[in-house]
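Standup, Tuesday
Yesterday: got the pipeline producing structure tokens again.
Today: sanity-check two examples.
Blockers: none.

Example 1:
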Amino acid sequence: MSSFASSGPAAVPTSIVADAAMSAYNFGPNHPMSPKRLDLTARLAKELGIFDLPNVAVLDSYVASDDELATVHSREYIAAVRRVGADPSLSEPERGLGTEDDPAFARMHEASARLGGASLLLSDALIAGTAIRGVNFGGGMHHASREKAGGFCIYNDAAMAVQRLLDSGVGKVAYIDIDAHHGDGTQNIFFNEPRVMTISLHESGLTLFPGTGFANEIGGPKAEGTAVNVSLPAGTGDAGWLRAFHSVVPALVEAFAPDVILSQHGCDSHREDPLAHLNTSVDAQREAALSISALADKVCGGRWIAVGGGGYNIVSVVPRVWSHLMAIVAGKPIQLRTAVPQPWREYVQENFGQVAPLLMGEDADTWWRSWEVGYNPSDALDRTVMATRKAVFPLYGLDPWFD
């Protein structure tokens, strides 16, 4: 692809941002989004040897500049974040700042902009050819929109990374969001941008925040068909979740033919997550990451950036899912029967008073039924998948029934 420098034989193919300073993104001790999940994830990845792989470069982040933030956020909004971060007694609820979801905290601007800087580093690595893939597990702040915070998200690092790619000359980017919550902020930022396809697989807005993300949201007048939403019924488990993913995502990404995939891997669809009502396993989320990896290899020369997102079971779920993600991005998947390293389990026991999982997987049954074997109109999952396929597939010359 002409917009990327040649990677060359000496280049490091995978970049991972693992910066302890990113834990400053902290809404307080009683908030569901605990920064401790980042520390636990980094510790587990290190114990598993992911950071020591010869093809992996581990990076520190930086605080993104106002000019960089302004590629996807308004100057007025950035100034508001600065004001509230400078004086946490202030609130600007009309901008989502100082609310129950997004409480004000000291230096909020700097902490949030550092998450953005991490995802920008990954885009820059792809552009320069020093990496083909990258992970920012501390990112994925997909509810932040151009003018407003929302859902624990202040600045939208994923959107910043996508825009950086576009501004560098990349032709098209596919954004795939498998968080339990609709990726509304990222969708809204690119709703009228034909060079970006946003695909969100999430629990229905009828039962979960932010109440959006239905099949009829397909993009603005200049970009119809580039917003794709699969609105899953509450209670959807591994088989239905993977069926929905495979019935929509690969065909549309292949038809769109992006130059880069950027995926958001919020793991709050897990059955033990306290904030959503889906029923997936660590194993299924690993399977989805493997599928995105294969899709990147097939359609865009392997170029893939992965970010974190939601996930509020910070001991049993988040560290395992994101360690699997990092290993997959690096091309060295960890088997599900791998033992969780004993030093990490001891750290969890000593610091959290919890018994950590013994294995990296859950022995879940991740079999899923292919769309090609039949569609059941009496099944709620199949109805929502069909609604998405009917809304978008014909715009790419695809048959909603069979492709």
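Example 2:
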Amino acid sequence: MSTMATRYMASTNLQVGARCEINGSWGVIRFIGVTGFSSGKWVGVELDEPNGKNDGSVMGKRYFECREKHGVFVRPS
């Protein structure tokens, strides 16, 4: 995540449906919360382009719906 995006996300309230930028790719926040794949809070983003790692599911658990390679999970900070 870029420094600018990190500062913006840390200084605002994250909301499902909000647009965001992650490492130069734009998308929409689709999930905010805890997951089964790692501890702590995560943000699931549906990217506009196929630059992601998943389809909104990880290790067989669905967190949100999107096309293959359009989903990514990032830490909120």
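Quick observation on example 2: The chain has a mean pLDDT of 89. Strands lie at 19-22, 25-34, 41-47, 57-58, 61-62, 71-74.
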